[in-house]
């Protein structure tokens, strides 16, 4: 049995997730993500390693841009197979693709105007990677599957999606390849969630696998205790109100924005924070809220109780769901303190950039980060303490307070990653550590070798491995 895996993304970095599996005469692409780090962005424009039309299917773990954002471009370049994923992932990915296409068109037009004016040569093309029209066309490729149901991919290949507990609809993939009497099971962790988080169920744990691909975003560290989230968030809100500025929170539209609303709702009910205006300035997050309502079967017990009682943690007095550009601009006319939640979570695009332009220079405002900031992103520069950053091609001084709350993370930390791997009753033939910055991946690989004695690899970009 010949099985080959090529690591075409998320190898010693945290975006652009793509793993090509070649077996039994078929080519399957697990995830099809976009690169977001500045140093790797040019890979989005590179010719793909195999002809897109030669790939039979995409097996998608979840609907974050770094895992699904390249699909419309892949389709434009010739891919015409099916994209298999959970129903919630399919709905959210279509929303994300439309938003991404629109932002890319706007950014390309803005960049072209600026470069013509400045007569500059540019590193990236002044055209979008794909457009809204391309995203709409790619939407026809999605084919939803249910958690726990095995999908036959033909010629002895089967895949089952299991709840990853990371974001709504997220999954771990159990790929089984059979030839005659022999079979091999490969686990793709996707992004592993955390135990005891609100809204979602806990990650699935497996008892056996021949090969495992495990993410390592936080493979070199542990998170702050989750029970500090309420105190940390209340502290940021109250301090900003006292200073008289705005609390600006860059947030991923999928899951993180909704978890923020969940915690803000609880703080308001307990009167631990003043009843300020809260703006969810992300049309994509607003649309994703509707997807949440479509899939109550994915909720954890606490969330189901909310719904059974006719309540919603995503709706409370003072909350405004911002849809239009004019509504977004009007936020700047509001006096006093407001809480502004806007995308994107790493400040790489979207409306958050406009709110940063308005608030970065204000000492009384606070920029609060509640998610991972990849190396090279605007968010990483701000959270790392840079005193000056570039937005829309112009320099801006950072005078606002910059704070982080780590307990929000939807990624397992190193201890939780070990907890997930420890479900295996015997060592896999090999563990591949992926989807982490090089230091994090190497650190986690070293930990697994020392504590478990397993064979562990940290693949290089474009590395191919023959499994059998």
Radius of gyration (CA) equals 22 Å
Strand content: 15-25%
- Into which percent range does the helicity of residues fall? 25-40%
CATH architecture of the largest domain: 4-Layer Sandwich
Major sheet characteristics = 7 strands, mixed
Count of helical segments? 13
The CATH C-level class name of the largest domain: Alpha Beta
Average of pLDDT? 93
Shape: globular
Strand order of the largest sheet: 6-5-4-3-2-1-22
Secondary structure: number of strands: 22
Query: Span from first to last CA?
Result: 6 Å
CATH superfamily of the largest domain: Ribonuclease Z/Hydroxyacylglutathione hydrolase-like
Derived structural class:
alpha/beta
What does this structure look like?
The protein has 468 residues and is α/β, with parallel strands linked by helices. The chain has two domains: 3-221 and 410-466, Ribonuclease Z/Hydroxyacylglutathione hydrolase-like (Metallo-beta-lactamase, Chain A, 4-Layer Sandwich); 226-407, 3-Layer(aba) Sandwich (Rossmann fold). Helix content is 30%, strand content 22%. The protein has 13 helices and 22 strands. The strands form four sheets. It has a seven-stranded mixed β-sheet with strand order 6-5-4-3-2-1-22. The longest helix is centred in the N-terminal third of the chain and has 32 residues, at 87-118.
């Amino acid at each position: 049995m010949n099985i080959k895996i090529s690591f075409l993304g998320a190898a010693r970095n945290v975006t652009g997730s793509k793993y090509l599996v070649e077996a039994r005469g078929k080519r399957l692409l697990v995830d099809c993500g976009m690169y977001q780090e500045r140093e790797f962005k040019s890979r989005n424009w590179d010719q793909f390693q195999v002809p897109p039309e030669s790939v039979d299917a995409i097996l998608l773990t979840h609907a974050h841009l770094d895992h699904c954002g390249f699909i419309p471009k892949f389709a434009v370049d010739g891919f015409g197979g099916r994209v298999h994923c959970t129903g919630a992932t399919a709905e959210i990915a279509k929303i994300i693709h439309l938003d991404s296409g629109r932002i890319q068109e706007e950014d390309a037009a803005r960049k072209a105007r600026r470069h013509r004016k400045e007569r500059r040569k540019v590193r990236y093309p002044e055209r979008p990677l794909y457009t809204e029209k391309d995203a709409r066309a790619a939407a026809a490729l999605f084919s939803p599957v249910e958690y726990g149901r095995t999908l036959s991919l033909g010629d002895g290949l089967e895949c089952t999606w299991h709840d990853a507990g990371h974001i709504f609809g997220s999954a771990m993939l159990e790929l089984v390849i059979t030839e005659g009497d022999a079979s091999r099971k490969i686990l793709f962790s996707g992004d592993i969630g955390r135990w005891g988080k609100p809204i979602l169920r806990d990650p699935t744990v497996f008892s056996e696998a021949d090969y495992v691909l495990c993410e390592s975003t936080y493979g070199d560290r542990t998170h702050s205790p989750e029970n500090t989230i309420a105190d940390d968030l209340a502290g940021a809100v109250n301090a900003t109100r006292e200073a008289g500025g705005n609390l600006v929170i860059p947030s991923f539209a999928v899951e993180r924005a909704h978890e923020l609303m969940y915690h803000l709702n609880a703080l308001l009910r307990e009167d631990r924070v003043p009843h300020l205006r809260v703006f969810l300035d992300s049309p994509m997050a607003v649309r994703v809220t509707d997807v949440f309502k479509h899939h109550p079967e994915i909720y954890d017990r606490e969330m189901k109780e909310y719904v059974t009682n006719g309540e919603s943690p995503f709706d409370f007095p003072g909350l405004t769901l911002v849809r239009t550009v004019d509504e977004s601009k009007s936020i700047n006319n509001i006096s006093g303190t407001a809480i502004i939640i806007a995308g994107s979570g790493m400040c790489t695009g979207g409306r958050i950039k406009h709110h940063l332009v308005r608030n970065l220079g204000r000492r009384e405002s606070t920029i609060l980060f509640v998610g991972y900031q990849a190396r090279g992103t605007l968010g990483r520069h701000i959270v790392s303490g840079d005193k000056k950053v570039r937005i829309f091609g112009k320099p801006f001084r950072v005078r606002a307070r910059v704070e982080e709350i780590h307990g929000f993370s939807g990624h397992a930390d190193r201890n939780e990653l070990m907890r997930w791997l420890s479900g295996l009753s015997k060592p896999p033939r090999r563990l591949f550590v992926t989807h982490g910055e090089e230091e994090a991946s190497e650190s986690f690989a070293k930990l697994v070798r020392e504590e478990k004695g397993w064979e562990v690899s940290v693949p290089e970009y474009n590395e191919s491995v023959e499994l059998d």
